[in-house]
Amino acid sequence: MKLIQPFVTEVNFESGVFTPRRGVYQRRLSDMAGMYADREEAARILAEEGDRLIYEVHIVQLPAEEGQIPHGATRILAGNIGGEFHMTKGHYHARREQGEVYFGLSGRGMLLLETVDGKTSELEMVAGSAAYVPPFWAHRTVNIGAEDFVFFSVWEARAGHDYGTIERDGFRKLVMLRDGWAVVVDNPKAAG
Fold first, then answer.
1. Helix, coil or strand: residue 150
2. Which DSSP category does 126 fall into?
3. How many secondary structure helices (H) and strands (E) does the chain include?
4. Which of 1, 16, 84, 113 would staple 73 via disulfide (CB 3.0–4.6 Å)?
């Protein structure tokens, strides 16, 4: 194992931006269009309004070796696609036996979780709430508020990310805007 010098990163709770600047990646609607239930509306928005930013992740990448603990802050912008709130792609860990912790920094969100055998869970998150993602659970985070939702996450470096299973099968639940409220509904297109 490579010896790494200790360091401090400041996190802006409203934006998720790290100081000093670390790795950043963004997901735009073009990266996410197939993840939304209303794909026609996603295509319309792309064509008429452009490739809107859905979320961005500021991340401290560390070597993928035992003992290392990468961490990041995700900012999901407020908005919806066909009534389905902005969300992350969602993933399982490549090493399914690894967990993760999310800590709400600002805004309102919901953490959707599911297992391959059909169990589901929804956890509401706000500033100050810590949500535990146990091993073997896929997870997706959704902004259910009118402002950006920002949360901090910590995971074991060897966990890895399996986005492909979610891209293929979808999530069993959707979070929809109905009469001004966030409502969790079954996804009619999800496998399983």
1. strand
2. E
3. 3, 15
4. 16
CA distances from 161 to 58, 62, 132, 164 (A): 16, 14, 17, 9
In a domain, 192, yes or no: no
- When divided into structural domains, the chain yields a total of 1
Tens of pLDDT, residues 140-167: 999 999 999 999 999 999 999 999 999 9
pTM (2 decimals)? 0.95
> Domain holding 29: CATH number?
2.60.120.10
Domain around 43: 10-186
Q: Give the model's pLDDT for residue 161.
A: 93
Low-confidence ranges of the chain (pLDDT < 50): none
- Could you tell me if residue 132 is inside a domain? yes
If you compute the radius of gyration of the chain from its CA atoms, what whole number of angstroms results? 16
Q: How far apart (Å, rounded) are the C-alpha atoms in residues 96 and 16? A: 27
